Structure formats: structure tokens, C-alpha cells
Amino acid sequence: MDLKQGLNIFILAVAGIAGNVMAASEAEVAFNKEVLQCAAYYHIASGAISQMNAPQMKAVGERLKQSELDAVKLAKQYQTEAEVDALLDKTIAEQQASLPSNKNLGALMGRYKQPCQELLANPQQRLDYWIMATM
């Protein structure tokens, strides 16, 4: 193989990788919507807990913040960073608008706490669900 052939193979490989990152399937988009709903919930909850000025809740707030970061990292495996950031900002705004105040997290907790714990504990199971649901 000469240099030109090697360069052509390299370019095709890079283009293939870039194409995979940019073109999320319908299942991945649906899955990411759920992942980002969880990230938004964790963002709002960790922010509200940090504003409580309750030292005994510090560890809980830190765990929620880490869960937010984990969810965002997971989402970026399926969509671009720009897409994830924009969707996350939109989802945070929607969830905040649904609350009577940031300190009353009962509705968000009721809706997201358990499903988000399950999703982050086993994301492949939820992605598999969306793959089957969008066939």
C-alpha cells in the first residue's frame, strides 16, 4: 500500500466515525430525550439542595450533581455536544417552568427519581427498549 492509498483509507475511516456520531437513530434520539430529562431533573434537584444551606444534605446534592454529569456523558455518546447542550438547556427550562418553585421538588421526584436511577444503572436495557419500540 502506498501513501496515497493509506491516506484514502484513513480519510474514509474518519468520515465513517464522524458519520456515526452525527446521525443518531430514531431509537437513540428517543433514548437521549429520556437521558436528558434525567440530567435536567438531577440539575434542578442538586441546585435546589445546594441552595438549602443544609450541611447534612451536601452529600445528596453531590450525588445528584454526579448523576447529572453521568447522564450528560451518556447522552453525548449518541448526539453531538451542541445537540446535547441545547436539548439539556431546553429540558431544564421546561422542568423548571412546571414547578411552583425550585424548592418544591415533589412533582419532579415523583416522576423522575426511580426511572432515572434505573436508566443510569442499566442504560443498555432502556436503549434496547427504544430500539424495539421504534422498529
Characterization of the model:
It is a single chain. It is built from 6 helices and no strands. The protein is an all-alpha fold and 135 residues long. Helix 2 (26-51) packs across helix 6. The chain is 80% helix and 0% strand. Mean pLDDT is 85; it is low at 6-20. The N and C termini lie far apart (41 Å). The chain has helices at 3-22, 26-51, 58-75, 81-97, 106-121, 123-133. The longest helix has 26 residues, at 26-51. The chain is elongated.
Summary of the model, kept short:
The protein is built from 6 helices and no strands. By secondary structure, it is mostly helical.
Properties at a glance:
single chain, 135 residues, mainly alpha, elongated
Structural class: mainly alpha
Straight-line distance between termini: 41 Å
**Net shape:** elongated
SSE run? HHHHHH
Helicity level, as a percent range? over 70%
Stretches with pLDDT under 50, minimum 5 residues: 6-20
The DSSP helix count reads: 6
Our estimate of the beta-strand percent is under 5%
Q: Over the alpha carbons, how many angstroms does the gyration radius reach? A: 19 Å
The total of beta strands comes to: 0
Major beta sheet summary: none
Mean pLDDT over the full residue set: 85
